[in-house]
Queue: 3 jobs
Job 1
Amino acid sequence: MTEIPVRQTVEIGLGKAAQRGYHLDDIALVPSRRTRDVDDVSTAWQVDAYPFKIPCVAHPSDATMSPPTAVALGRLGGLGVLNIEGLWTRYEDPTKILKELATLDDEASATRRLQEAYAEPIRAELIDDRVKALRDGGVTVAVRVSPQHTLALAPVILDAGVDILVIQGTLVSAEHVSTVDEPLNLKEFIADLDLPVIVGGCTNYQTALHLMRTGAAGVIVGIGADAWSTTDMVLGIRVPMATAIAEAAAARRDYLDETGGRYVHLLADGNLRTSGDIAKALGCGADAVMIGEPLSVCEDAPAGGAWWHSAASHPKLPRGSFGLAGEALRGRGPGRASMERLLYGPSDDPEGGLNLFGGLRRAMAKCGYRDLKEFQKVGLVLDR
């Protein structure tokens, strides 16, 4: 029987306790007794039969992911993910709308315009066209669908021919209860597929373990929370990333024992802006990271520098602010750059906003680890 790890709890009042959680900003990496040459370090990562040069998966926002940018990221060694419920499957040519959105500066009007834009129905023929564009680009084809629309859209998506399916919502569980609609049974759904499925997000040990038991190849950890997410204000839900990743990593370890060796990849999604954030997420136990807002600084970003989460356009309860490219928590950022420079440098940003995976390689080298699996063993220290 799998044992649930003991958590550190604090009594916040009579009869109520809360688990203590830690953000990535609360921790730091501890170098080992050796260092390595940066050229001897590998950031290679692989899901099922699909290898990648860097552990980078794009957060499926229309602000950053179009068919061309998904192909560009794939050619640079990452995994682009197109939102199959986004503007590219609602409009023949959404570039005019994306350019308009890039000019908006009032948050309230931007949210209303997003809701209007996403009210257009999804067109099956456009799903075929977009998947074909990705495949013609010669990269691994990955698309995102929400849990509530998976059953309806899956036949069209699968007929179009994707390599990896990402089922992503703010929070996803393996046991959704509904007296109104037929819920998605992830275990049955995944069992009928012959392609790897990545599901999430989740924020704790129990949910991560249950999602692994559905047969998923990967589990997304986190709720995509960054400076622009309002999930904590709208829903009151906020789980610090370092704690969420560590708990999911414990679930993966126990699931590995439970199944006699089946490994499930963890993708960290939330508040990842710098190369240091990426290094710490992987050090906590993630196999890869989902990059969102940092991709908005790319010169070819479809929205021309604007940024929003997919949940920001929800017709009834939007959960995300409208932002501009590269705006950091301190009100400044690295400015516009090519995607190659964002990922591999060179950088002129001393705060880690460019050369994201060159920074990761150097962190691994300084700490003495040669590959990503070894790097998950790096020591951590609380310094806040």
Note: Residues 209 and 251 are 5 Å apart (CA to CA).
Job 2
Amino acid sequence: MDKVNKNVSIQLLRIMSMLFVIFGCHLFSELNSTFLTKTTQFFNVGVFIFLFIFGYLYGKKNIQDYKKWYINRAKKILIPVYIFLIIFFLLKLFVNDFSLKYFIAALLNLEYYIGAPVGIGHLCFITIILICYILTPILKKQKFNYFEILLFLILSAIGSYINSKLGQSLFYILTYFLGMQYVKVENKINIKILGLFFIFLVAIIIRLIGLRFFDGTVLYDRIIFSLTQMTICLCFFIFFNRYIHFSPNKLIDYFDSISFYLYITHYMFMVGTFRLMGLTQNLLINSIITILFAYITAVLLKKASKIVESRLSI
């Protein structure tokens, strides 16, 4: 989606994160497996990785003109989202399942706070990333400071008890901010693979203990969940960025370029009015058909978005 820094390891991490969300979070939850359903919350780390990557890339970028940057970001994000939303709600109108409230919320990109019809709830991510983009000039100016990061953590935890969405939003913004801050210290961090594995394992253990004893509470659902996801996210990022090295590859370029569009389209075929997961009695066939439709619509969405974007550039 973004060519700010063509780093193949980052491309691979972005593709992996997309697969985590599509398969681990969404597809697994539709399969008749209690074990796979329970693992979906762990695969949600893909969202945190996306945010960290965005923060890291824009932390490295020297942004001279924020007005131009905002316009370019809005075009890259909102053009495919709006094309998809218009088609989605037209289809909902056709089957007499249209909601004006959700349509307006979607146009304003407030799905995370107001809600969304089943099938586009995942676009709440767009709400968060747009907030992060708006805050970028402020966050980018901040120097690396452990006290500020700790204060941000405390505020996020307190916010979680005031309002769950507020707290989660703050944790998401903090993840984006940490990506920016990582740029300033990455050359000073020297963690070996065994160290990363140990930190990763400790985060998983804390998560499982929290799940066992505090599931359903703000302490687990927002604070332990977010802190461990951020830790796991950091482990993945450091591992890929430091230890995974590949030469530029057309296949990697292709899947990276389509990952955002696939993220937008896939969920409507898994749940809701246009669900394909119940098309036959065979889960494997249903899964293949669902992913195929998601892929085809992603390709079409990408082409339509490029056409609209080129017209707007005239």
Note: The two ends are 21 Å apart (CA to CA).
Job 3
Amino acid sequence: MSTVLYLVVPCYNEEETLPTTEKALSELMSDMIKRGRISENSRIVFVNDGSKDKTWELIEKYTEENILIKGIKLSRNKGHQNALLAGLMTVKDECDCAVSLDADLQDDIGAVEKMLDEFEDGCEIVYGVRSKREKDTLFKRATAQGFYKFMRFMGADVIYDHADYRLMSRRALHELENFKEVNLFLRGIVPMIGFKTGTVMYERGVREYGESKYPLKKMLSFAVDGITSLSIKPIRFITTLGVLLLFASIIMLAYSLVRHFTGHTELGWTSLIVSIWGIGGLQLFAIGVVGEYIGKIYLETKERPRFIIDKYIGK
């Protein structure tokens, strides 16, 4: 029996790019169905994440015209990660496997069939990994690569140069459902599932319409969320720094006592002020890091729903 494949595509203000995306994905799925590569029950699911343009109107139109298209409308904007999770959790019992990808199609859709090959060879999770970023701007390439290196350094187990382009089997999706975090960082959560995994390399393309949903400011915020959701390494850094400062203060105390008893005491106004500002800044920084973790604990204990589905349409 052919594999039932679902493509899950989160959409936020994608009115400009959606017509091109719908056409390209429909052609891909139709071709694979005709060749018997996947089941005729396979579908493309667009998840509208509270878009302010005509994204949802387009999705409704496509579901009426194209049997391959389904649409999910969230009750409000919940962010890319929650929209992606909403799509995956909605389709997990309808498919054998699901591939998540962005609406801008910068990730080469030609890799989908290669992911299917890996799935049929027994892989429960297949990561789409960018082989090169030659079409990215120098700034985008540097910040993106820095993001992955920094995340790994800070203790977050992420796949280098992998975003959210991946295949997950039904079994893996059901295991993903057991992760109840409100603060979602799927790039770090999915590797925790384990199982047999595979990797498919592809070349990242250029976004033709609209703007990137991950500018530098959002990328930094995303990194902070990922690190504090997956690792306590920042707190350990602060603890280590505190111990080092304690030893430094003991050395300075011994030095000051020696200077005092040898009659070389001097007015140390500059060093005193620098020390006060330095220690004060460190304390505020430490409180901020700890506060970030406490804030996440606060949100997790509320157990609020990560998404609310308003409509699910399509055949």
Note: DSSP finds ten helices and eight strands in the chain.
